[in-house]
Amino acid sequence: MAEYYVPIRNQSYLDMYTFEEMDLPFWRQWFADNWIWSLYIGAVYVITIFSCQRFMKNREAFDLRTALALWNFGMAIFSIFAFSRVFPEIFYLLTKPNGLHAAACKIEDHGMSMAFWALTYTLSKALQLGDTLFIVLRKKKLILLHWYHHASVMILSWYAYQTYIPLLRFVGTMNYFVHGFMYTYYGLRACEIKVPKRVSIFVTILELMQMIAGFSVTLFCLWQYNYGDNGCLISARAITPSAAIYSTLFVLFAKHFRSTAFKQRGKLKSS
């Protein structure tokens, strides 16, 4: 368990819902004691998806369009609503003097709404592993980026929650924003609604920008911690694996964007 106390203050920038009340020290301790379960869940996830892929090799693909549409729109609604609850705190902090430092390096002006949705963000990473089952059961192409992204982010989120460093506010807010677009796009495709091909590239660009922004803010926190006048509240247990995973995901997303962009551009020229 991290050694510092996280103060929860009244939110002058956002009205709190009753259901957002939570016991933050309890959940930090719970993840400190049980984060190892994310490794077990990750291992079961990888074994399951590749076992299912082998099982489906000589079988007809399942038609899961209705279930897939409901899944994606459900995730989209969840992400959009969560973003609407966490962004006000980030915006409020960024508008203060030295806003980026206040938002990424200090835990002041932290509200219960952000704390609650940071918890749901962390827990939802295990639920989002279900994305891959739709790919495998529908016999779509499963790429390294997809399953590595899901497994690594889930494990990192569970492991890092106990430290509760301010950087996590940025990570969760960006992720909710991108997922709001991404799941809406996949929901429309599941409904067989024609979406311009450029939208797919746009979604990939958003994901790539998320990796760049996350890695950049991580470097900012490290610089402030080592050389900044006001320091930065970070933890090696969280920031080291975060930097490593962000850098590898950036490479994989960049490679995926390059192949997708050239493929889509070729289709646009030939149409």
From TrEMBL:
EC numbers for this chain: 2.3.1.199
Superkingdom field: Eukaryota
Membrane topology field: Multi-pass membrane protein
Any one cellular-component term (Gene Ontology): endoplasmic reticulum membrane
Location (main, coarse): membrane
Reactions the enzyme catalyzes: a very-long-chain acyl-CoA + malonyl-CoA + H(+) = a very-long-chain 3-oxoacyl-CoA + CO2 + CoA
The UniProt record lists the keyword Lipid biosynthesis: yes
Subcellular location: Membrane
Record-annotated membrane-spanning stretches: 35-56, 68-94, 114-137, 144-161, 167-188, 200-226, 238-257
MF terms in GO: fatty acid elongase activity
Pfam families: ELO
One biological process term in Gene Ontology: fatty acid elongation, polyunsaturated fatty acid
Alphabetical UniProt keywords: Fatty acid biosynthesis, Fatty acid metabolism, Lipid biosynthesis, Lipid metabolism, Membrane, Transferase, Transmembrane, Transmembrane helix
Protein name as it appears in the record: Elongation of very long chain fatty acids protein
Source organism of this protein record: Orchesella cincta
